[in-house]
TrEMBL record, chain A:
Reaction catalyzed: 2 pyruvate + H(+) = (2S)-2-acetolactate + CO2
Protein name: Acetolactate synthase
UniProt xrefs under Gene3D superfamilies: 3.40.50.970, TPP-binding domain
GO CC, alphabetical: acetolactate synthase complex
Highest classification ranks of the organism: Bacteria, Pseudomonadati, Bacteroidota, Bacteroidia, Bacteroidales
Class of the enzyme per the UniProt entry, highest EC level: transferase
Cofactor detail note: Binds 1 thiamine pyrophosphate per subunit.
Top-level taxon: Bacteria
Organism: Paludibacter jiangxiensis
Stretches assigned to the Thiamine pyrophosphate enzyme central domain: 198-331
Associated pathway: Amino-acid biosynthesis; L-valine biosynthesis; L-valine from pyruvate: step 1/4; Amino-acid biosynthesis; L-isoleucine biosynthesis; L-isoleucine from 2-oxobutanoate: step 1/4
Keyword hit for Metal-binding: yes
GO molecular function, one term: thiamine pyrophosphate binding
GO biological process entries: isoleucine biosynthetic process; L-valine biosynthetic process
From TrEMBL, chain B:
Job description of the protein: Catalyzes the conversion of 2 pyruvate molecules into acetolactate in the first common step of the biosynthetic pathway of the branched-amino acids such as leucine, isoleucine, and valine.
Any single Pfam family the record assigns to this protein: ALS_ss_C
Protein name: Acetolactate synthase small subunit
Top-rank EC class of the record's enzyme: transferase
InterPro entries to which the protein is assigned, alphabetical: Acetalactate_synth_ssu, Acetolactate_synth/TF_NikR_C, Acetolactate_synth_ssu_C, ACT-like_dom_sf, ACT_dom, AHAS_ACT, AHAS_small-like_ACT
NCBIfam families registered for this protein in UniProt: acolac_sm, PRK11895.1
The enzyme's E.C. designation: 2.2.1.6
GO MF term set: acetolactate synthase activity; acetolactate synthase regulator activity
Catalytic activity line of the entry: 2 pyruvate + H(+) = (2S)-2-acetolactate + CO2
Domain called ACT: residue spans: 7-87
CDD domains: ACT_AHAS
Length: 564, 179
């Protein structure tokens, strides 16, 4: 044994350091113990967050990644440890979140023998990862880790799973690390086609009613400034997908609101009135488009994306601008003529007024004693000077968070969009706070969702993480209840919940909190919550049968907006 | 939309698990793979999948893009029958006695450009290469004398272009790697 030889586990740690890893979310177990043993020597260089369930680790890594832009790192053991990360891995895949998950695996000689805590992790994760690879010897570790970070981060980001056999963690090897910069079978960013750039610019230049739909691709490409420059130069009104939220300040005059099922009235109506639809870093999800057969048929479609597989997947593009959004947007903007579309832009106003009068006004400033969801979100946003990070769980809390939270800086919305994972919120908020320790992180969750990962209050206790947890408690699985009311003849099948005393639960974990049920109590509790940087749980007893409106029913025309 | 038989050709790195990654893209869309042939390609270290599937152009286009998106896949292409030269091989087992009884089987073998691969005292094996319909035709003709076993391979195909499609891609990538 030569002096320079180190174990596979130490090699993993050194590879992490070489990749700039500062934070690891994880949970130890049998088949990953050598890695944890090595971590013991590196704990002053990398912060390890001990979660309470592996699902919490992946969602926390997602929250961390979404606010920092860095790759989230997760360590879990084999078998159940690995299967517990699956939901988060699938979530990261559909929401394009860069993440490297290292799972322990039984020793290579025991593979395929149904050994204790053995699962075919690569087999399970292949369809829900960008790359999934089993490392069977220590010598492969530097190569595989370098490749994992490169793949997770480059192009359209996503999760990578490394299935690390126990023998590979223990074996000795000569460590030499080279970051991956090239994989011949993987072209992360397609080259920009100048002709296409000119075609796109020409279409926008002749547009009378251009409309931009902005997705997370703008944030992932760090193209917020380029986007703003484009929109302002050609005076293009813009609307946002759920994951595109916060890429542009809420109060920017060209920001017309959110798209889709619970989006803003005008945005959905105008989708079917514009003459050129400019989709940027978004994938025409069904929650955005609703019925495809009647979606934006009148418009020429320009689709900016980094992922060629998204082009023509749901909506056929007349011009597809492939490439990194930061570069493509800038390239197109260069060829744009300064333009004004005053009449078109102000045509959104009448819809905004209708929506305000019929939905928003009462939602944020109720005339009745019951507290409303929009009111809570609006007040919390206000109390943080609209500078906080908004994390949501899934359901009504999420849609209300998206609708009523206001954003002044990018990477401020953390939510499970594509997968719609209940239980995402609490661990994601923990990860977000760790990634952005100097910002206020407000989590909005329902009484249902928080109970799916409520064990992560333990992580907050142990690591002293100052997240503001706002439980919108209506004693219902609110969104399902809303659908039952609207589409299932008010047959409330198993959506009513008998809940614990959330404030007492929080208190048991050393977290201060309050339960409120009047407007005045709410105001005082919010003031108390934001008065310091400690964790806080605010349980708000909201009206039991609140609805998220407007709503476009699933499968209806996108213009079929119901205001009540 | 009308369904056409497409030939999908996939070039990948030779890494375990690729077949699964490719096949789940079809199964997720409930596309039945008609035939599948996997083997080394003419390029060292590169594997080649030849897959046939009935579907429409819109769908096959999406499928091929999804396949190519897999990290270890180098390139994926799709073709209609008129764009490729393709072939299958079939083996038929018949009783040797029925060959001896008349010259009809021999006539069929000549007519279909087939050949005897093996003749034993009890059974004989006939081999034929061709397109699916020709192979099936010979099967039905032979079956009048009783075919004991019959097996048909998946399709292999080459394009009508003069060079291996992948070569340019690989040389371009090599250039890029050098920077």
């Amino acid at each position: 044994m030569s002096q320079s030889q180190i174990s596979g586990s130490q090699a993993l740690m050194r590879a992490f350091l070489a990749e700039g890893v500062e934070t690891i979310f994880g949970y130890p177990g049998g088949a990953i113990m050598p890695v944890y043993d090595a971590l013991y020597d590196f704990h002053d260089k990398m912060r390890h967050i001990l979660v309470r369930h592996e699902q919490g680790a992946v969602h926390a890594a997602q929250g961390y990644s979404r606010v920092t832009g860095k790759t989230g790192v997760v360590i879990a053991t084999s078998g159940p440890g690995a299967t517990n990360v699956i939901t988060g891995v699938a979530d990261a895949m559909i929401d394009s979140t860069p993440m490297v998950v290292v799972c322990g695996q039984v020793v290579a000689s025991l593979l395929a023998t149904d050994a204790f805590q053995e699962t075919d992790v690569v087999g399970i994760t292949q369809p829900i990862t960008k790359w999934s690879y089993q490392i069977r010897s220590a010598a492969e570790i530097p190569w595989a880790v370098a490749r994992a970070f490169y793949i997770a981060r480059e192009g359209r980001p996503g999760p990578v799973v490394l299935d690390l056999t126990k023998n590979a963690q223990i074996e000795l090897m000569n460590f030499h690390y080279e970051p991956c910069t090239f994989i011949r079978s993987f072209i992360p960013t397609p080259p920009i086609d100048e002709q296409v750039v000119s075609d796109a610019a020409a279409l926008i230049n002749q547009a009378k009613k251009p409309f931009a739909l902005v997705g997370q691709g703008v944030i992932l490409g760090n193209a917020e400034n380029e986007l703003l420059a484009m929109l302002e130069k050609a005076q293009i009104p813009a609307a946002w997908t759920l994951l595109g939220l916060s890429a542009m300040p809420t109060d920017h005059p060209l920001n017309k609101g959110m798209l889709g099922m619970h989006g803003n009235y005008g945005c959905n109506i105008k989708t079917n009135e514009c003459d050129v639809l400019i989709a940027i870093g978004m994938r025409f999800d069904d929650r955005v488009t609703s019925k495809l057969a009647t979606y934006a048929k009148q418009a020429k479609i320009i689709h900016f994306d980094i992922d060629i597989a998204e082009i023509n997947k749901n909506v056929k593009a007349d011009v597809a601008v492939l490439g990194n959004s930061k570069e493509t947007i800038a390239a197109v903007t260069k060829q744009l003529q300064p333009a004004r579309h005053d009449e078109w832009i102000s045509s959104f106003d009448s819809y905004a007024k209708i929506e305000y009068d019929e939905v928003i006004k009462e939602e944020i400033d109720p005339s009745t004693p019951d507290i409303k969801m929009g009111e809570v979100i609006s007040k919390v946003s206000e109390a943080t000077g609209h500078k906080a990070i908004c994390v949501t769980d899934v359901g009504q809390n999420q849609m209300m968070g998206a609708r009523y939270f206001r954003f002044s800086q990018t990477r401020s919305m953390v939510t499970s969009g594509g997968l719609g994972t209940m239980g995402f919120g609490l661990p994601a908020a923990i990860g977000a706070k760790i990634g952005a320790p100097h910002r206020t992180v407000c989590l909005f969750c329902g009484d249902g969702g928080i109970q799916m990962t409520i064990q992560e209050l333990g992580t907050i206790l142990q690591e002293n993480i100052g997240v503001k947890i706002i439980v919108l408690n209506n004693h219902f699985l609110g969104m399902v209840r809303q659908w039952q009311e609207m589409f299932f003849d008010e047959r409330y099948s198993f959506t009513n919940m008998k809940n614990p005393d959330f404030v007492a639960v929080a208190k048991a974990y050393g977290i201060n909190g309050k339960c409120v049920s009047t407007h005045e109590e709410l105001d005082h509790a919010i003031a108390e919550m934001v008065s310091n940087d400690d964790a806080y749980l605010l349980e708000v007893r909201i009206e039991p049968k609140g609805m998220v409106l407007p709503m476009v029913p699933a499968g209806a025309d996108i213009t079929d907006v119901r205001l009540k | 939309m009308e369904k056409t038989l497409y030939t999908v050709i996939v070039f990948s790195e030779n890494r375990p698990g690729l077949l699964n990654q490719v096949s789940i893209i079809f199964s997720r869309r409930q596309l039945n793979i008609e035939s599948l042939t996997v083997s080394a390609s003419s390029i060292e270290g590169v594997h080649k999948f030849t897959i046939t599937v009935y579907t429409d152009e819109e769908e096959i286009d999406k499928v091929v893009k999804q396949i190519e998106k897999r990290i270890d896949v180098l390139k994926a292409y799709y073709y209609t029958d008129d764009e490729v030269i393709y072939q299958e091989v079939a083996l038929y087992k018949v009783d040797t006695e029925s060959i001896l009884e008349s010259d009809e089987i021999e006539q069929l073998v000549r007519k279909y450009n087939a050949r005897f691969l093996e003749i034993t005292r009890t059974f004989s094996v006939i081999e034929m290469t061709g397109h699916t319909d020709e192979i099936k035709e010979l099967y039905y003709a032979l079956d009048k004398f009783g075919v004991k076993q019959y097996v048909r391979s998946g399709r292999i195909a080459i394009t009508k272009s003069t060079s291996e499609l992948l070569s340019k891609f690989l040389s371009d990538r090599e250039e890029e790697a050098k920077g």
